[in-house]
Amino acid sequence: MSENTRRLKCAVVGVAIAGAAPAFAQSSVTLYGIVDTGIGWQSSQTTLGSTSGGRSAVKMINGVWAGSRFGLKGAEDLGGGTKAVFQLEQGFNSATGAQSTSGLMFSRQAFVGVTNPTYGSLTAGRQYASYYQMLSPYSPTTWLTGFYGAHPGDLDGLDTIYRANNTLLYTSPKIHGFTVSGSYSLAGVPGSVTQGSTWSAAAQYAMGPFGMAVGFSRINNSNVNGGAFGADTTTSNAGAQAGISAVTYGYQSARAQQRFAVGAGYTFNSQFDLTATYTNVQYIPGVGSGFHDTAIFNTGGVVLHWKPAATWDFATGYSYTRATRANGITSSAQYQQFNLSEYYTLSKRTGLYALQAFQRANGQTLTPAGNGTQIINATATIGDGFQTTPSSSRSMVAVGAGIIHRF
Predict the structure, then answer these.
(1) What is the C-alpha separation between 69 and 32, in angstroms, rounded?
(2) Which residues contact residue 204 at a Cβ distance below 8 angstroms, ignoring those fewer than 6 apart?
(3) How many CB atoms lie within 10 A of CB 86?
(4) N or C: which end of the chain has fewer CB within 10 A?
(5) How far is it between the farthest Cα atoms of the chain?
(6) Average pLDDT, the chain
C-alpha cells in the first residue's frame, strides 16, 4: 500500500470519528469569592428586648462592605441565544471560618435556570425575590453597606438578609429601559399553595443618568394563624426566621409580612450620584400572634455618593423610620440614622474601608412577654449588623474599618 493511500485512509477514518463524536456546547464555570474582615466598635451592646445594662464593645467583624463568600456560577450555550445558567454561593465568617448559616451548604444562593436575550430568564431554587433584585441598585447598602447603612434592622429588606427557598423567578429582557420581574416561592405545605409562601413583583426603569424601581413582596408564615415562624416558611434559614431586630422583635409572630418600596437614582456626573427610597412595611397579625393590630412602618432615606478621584469613594446617608400607633402604643417608635463611608481602592480586587453611623430611637415598641408582648422604650439598632446586639438605650454610635479582597 502506498504512502498516499495510507494517508487517505487515515484521513477518512479521522473524519468518520469526528462525525460520530457528540457536539459539545460552549460552556464556562467560574469560581469566585469575597473575603472581608475588619474591626468595629459600638457604644452600647445588650441583648434583644433589654433596655438597660448595655456596655461598649470592640470586636472583629466580617462581611461588612460585602458579605464574605465563595461560589460557583456557570453558563452553557444551548443555541439560538439560549443559555442554561446556575449559581451556588455559600457565605462564611472570615473571622472564625464558620458557616454564615449553620446547616446550609449554599446559604446565599442555589439556583439553576435558562436565559435568553429575547425572552428573559427563568430560574429555580434559593434566591433573592424580584422585590430585591429590581430595587437593589437604589438601596442605601450600595455605598453605606448593609452592616452599618441598611435601614434600621433591614426592616424593608433592601439588603440581602431575605433569601427565599423553592423560588421560581422570571425577569424580562430590558425593553426601552424597562425590566419587569416576578417570583413565587412554594412552601410545599399539604393542602395549601399559599401557606408559608413568598411572592413578589417589581419593575425597573433605567435610561441614561436616571433610574427608578417599584416593588412589592409578601412573606406568609407557614403557621397560618401566626405565632412562631414555621420552619416551612420559604424565607427561613434552616428553620430560623430572618430579619428579627430590636425594631421587629415584638412582631416576629406575625401571620404575614408585606413590603412596598419605591427607589430612584440620578447620576449628575462622574463624581456625584444620588439615590432615594421610600418603603412601607406591614407586620400582619393572626389569632396566634402576640400582638393584635397590624404594625406599619414607613421609611424614607437618601444617599449621596461622591467619587473625587479614581481611588476614592465617599458617601453620606440619612434615613427616618416611623411606626404607626397600634397595639396599645401611644408614642410610636421612630428611628433616625446618619451614615458616613469611605473606601480606598488598593487594586482592582482589594480595598480598604471605614464606616461611621449614629442612630437615635424614640417612642415605644413591643417585646415578647410570655404568650404575648409588652410595651418598652424603642432602642437603637444600626443597619443590620447589630440584629442580636442592639443598644440598651435610645442612642447608638458605631464605627468600623476593614479590608476586602475579591477573587
Answers:
(1) 8
(2) 134, 135, 137, 178, 179, 180, 181, 211, 212, 213
(3) 17
(4) N
(5) 104
(6) 94
**Residues 151, 135 contacting (CB under 8 angstroms):** no
- pLDDT digits over 340-365, tens only? 999 999 999 999 999 999 999 999 99
95-148 per-position pLDDT tens digit: 999 999 999 999 999 999 999 999 999 999 999 999 999 999 999 999 999 999
> Which 3 state secondary structure label does DSSP give 143?
helix
Torsion over CA: 383, 387, 389, 391 (sign): positive
Task: Describe the chain by its helix, strand, coil percentages, rounded to 5.
Answer: 10, 50, 40
Name the residue with cell 399559599.
Answer: 194
Q: Between β-strands 372-377 and 334-345, what pairing exists: parallel, antiparallel or unpaired?
A: unpaired
Q: Does an H or E element contain 214, and which?
A: strand 210-220
Q: Which pTM was predicted?
A: 0.91
Q: What is the DSSP string of 241-306?
A: PS---TTTGGGTT-SEEEEEEEEEEEE-SSSEEEEEEEEEEEEE--TTSS--S-EEEEEEEEEEEE
CA dihedral 70, 340, 161, 263 (to 10 degrees): -110
> In DSSP terms, which residues pair with 59 in a beta bridge?
40
Whether the CB-CB separation of 226 and 233 falls below 8 Å is answered with: no
Element (H, E) at 225: none
One-letter identity of residue 323: A
The three grid cell numbers given for residue 93, joined into one nine-digit string? 465568617
**Would you call 330 helix, strand, or coil by DSSP?**
coil
Vertex 180, ends 179 and 182: CA angle to 5°? 150
- Show the domains of the chain with their CATH numbers: 119-406 (2.40.160.10)
| Calpha distance 87→346 (Å, rounded) | 28
**The length of the chain, given as a count of residues:** 407
- DSSP 8-class letter at 50: -
